[in-house]
Amino acid sequence: MRRIELAFVAAIALLAASCGQASAPSEEQSEPNASASNEAATTGPTAEDRVFCAEVGRRISPADCEVYVALAQSAQRGVAAFNAPDPMRRGQLHTLQLAISFAPPEPPPAAVEPAPGGDDQQRGVSTGDSETPAPPSPPPAPASQTPQETVEDLPGETREFQPLVGRFMRAELQGVGFDITEKSPASQEVTPDSVTTWTWEVVARQGGARSLTLHTVVEGCTEDGRECVPLRSTTQNYTVNVEVGPVDRVKDFLLATPDWIKIVTAIVAALAGLIGAWIGLRNAFRKSRGSD
Prior knowledge:
By secondary structure, the chain is of the alpha+beta class. It has helices spanning 2-42, 62-74, 120-123, 147-151, 246-256, 259-291; strands at residues 51-53, 58-60, 76-77, 79-84, 88-89, 93-101, 124-127, 130-133, 157-161, 164-165, 168-174, 178-182, 187-189, 196-204, 208-221, 228-243.
């Protein structure tokens, strides 16, 4: 009997040991699976998760593509005014400014006066034989400043146009024969009921009729602002006459003179100097002989 009990206890011990060894690998395997799932959760969208977005012409995440498409479709014709001096003077510093805003809302329809004898609620409230007039409509809200009013105080010619306008805008000014310096951020946010401005300092380096090109771009920016891409654009070309002063004209003539003419001019000037010196010496010599 004693032997049977010992054999039964030994069998139970062996069974428990074998179950423990079988369950240990499953716990070890669960740890890599958990770490792999955590790593996949923290990692962003992979190349397989990206889609081709026609608005930007490349593969991006579906969420970013939806943002760009919505911003591109929301672009609408707005109001812009560009002030540039015409004519300009070569070598002088000029300030050019662009103002952009969304198009103003359509005015509300005019109120229709109620016909005599109409509903008392439209004409007023009757109290016996007297009639209380309806309260007057509130006055219209004052109009906000327009882009033209923003730039019209500058000493230049203001030209209006209707670019595509969105929430995020970028403006660039280019021109051959000009030194152009940005005095405001190229990319700015355009908010409703306000005017956004861009300013440049321009120095003309060449005379005559010159062309300035103004690019306005509707940009799409992700919610976190890490990236902005161009979506819609408007281009305007302006011709500016650049005047040249008299002193600059003489400098231009001398710089444009061929080299051989410059050499001949230098030789003639040198000969004239020698002849003048020789005449001076001869006169001095004659005076010295006359005094003797």
